[in-house]
Write a structure and sequence with these properties.
This protein has about 120 residues and is mostly beta strands. It contains no helices and 11 strands.
């Protein structure tokens, strides 16, 4: 069992930056692929970015490439999402997820990100 706790969300203006953090419980963090997803009001949850166990391989959605960067620190059981040049359409609840192959087995409670224009 893995428990995930996100933090770092908030209300910012367009063009600002935020860094989300997700801390995982347990001593097997390095065996999990980690990811970030988001869900805007009235929309389905969508993939944002993911990172493999070692941190050497990352994937990100087209709409965040060049703006968002995912990273992890296995010594701290933490995965990050650095978000730069935020846009109003990035407003959503951001969820952290973990999985042995694809990050979908365990989910955090989410952290709200609101970007004003």
């Amino acid at each position: 069992q893995v428990q995930l706790v996100e933090s770092g969300g908030g209300l910012v203006q367009a063009g600002d930056s935020l860094r989300l953090s997700c801390v995982a419980s347990g001593r097997t963090f390095s065996t999990y692929s980690m990811g970030w997803f988001r869900q805007a009001p009235g929309k389905e949850r969508e993939f944002v970015a993911s990172i493999r166990r070692s941190g050497e391989t990352t994937y990100s959605a087209d709409y965040v490439q060049g703006r968002f960067t995912i990273s992890r620190d296995n010594a701290k059981n933490t995965v990050y999402l650095q978000m730069n040049n935020l846009k109003p359409e990035d407003t959503a609840i951001y969820y952290c997820a973990a999985g042995l192959s694809y990050p979908s087995e365990y989910w955090g409670q989410g952290t709200q990100v609101t970007v004003s224009s």
